[in-house]
Design brief:
5-stranded mixed beta sheet, globular, 6-stranded mixed beta sheet, alpha+beta, about 210 residues, 13 strands, Metallo-beta-lactamase, Chain A, single chain
Length: about 210
């Protein structure tokens, strides 16, 4: 087994961190949250010789899932996995939301499989525990790799901030509780990639994030 590696491709005017997680030896991997600009994502996959086995979705907002169906087709109809089923209404409303924002090319998303708390998703020898963390979106999931001490937190937690909760289905109280009860206990040493901007470590956020202190 090689090392778990990650590449980030900021996509669309929302500058969402589409993330490619892959094994640096086998080049097997997955794409997390392809929100759009699918041609750029596909080109990065080809240039790096990656074998993408699935698309993982952290939550149903258009900037995270709007390009998933197109990428699925380009990659030979691989599975779209996640998020939690509570985000199904968001996934079926992407095209309507995209029209409001003037964001072209985004499509409604139909996952092949929804995720639940306690599920495990994997590629090659790299396994991720699934944590259901609503607050930003009702069906948001976080993906945690114990071996690498790494989490993909989507829009739950940011470097110095937290996810917005003024969108339909959002709850600031729930979001903060999820961070404090599910994420921070994983350990101060856990590094994370988030949905926008730079990542960080849970310990730094616990000590300095103004929403958590």
């Amino acid at each position: 087994m090689g090392r778990l590696s990650a590449g980030i491709i900021p996509v669309t005017p929302f500058q969402q961190n589409c993330t490619i997680l892959f094994d640096d030896e086998t080049k097997i991997g997955v794409v997390v949250d392809p929100g759009g600009d699918v041609d750029h994502i596909f080109e990065a996959i080809k240039q790096n010789g990656l074998d993408i086995q699935a698309i993982w979705i952290t939550h149903g907002h258009l900037d995270h899932a709007g390009g998933a169906m197109e990428l699925k087709e380009k990659l030979g109809n691989i599975e779209i996995i996640g998020p939690h089923k509570d985000d199904a209404p968001l996934l079926s409303n992407i095209e309507t939301q995209a029209a409001k924002y003037g964001a072209g090319g985004m499509r409604n998303c139909q996952p092949d499989r929804f995720l639940e708390e306690g599920d495990v998703v994997s590629f090659g020898d790299h396994s991720f525990a699934v944590l259901h963390c609503p607050g930003h979106a009702p069906g948001h999931v976080v993906l945690f790799n114990e071996a690498a001490r790494f989490a993909h937190v989507g829009d739950v937690l940011f470097n110095g901030s937290v996810g917005r909760t003024d969108l339909p289905g959002g709850s600031h109280e729930t979001l903060i509780r999820m961070i404090k009860e599910k994420l921070l206990p994983l350990g101060d040493d856990v590094g994370f990639i988030c949905g926008h901007g730079p990542g960080g470590r849970f310990g730094d956020e616990r000590r300095t994030n103004p929403f958590l202190v």
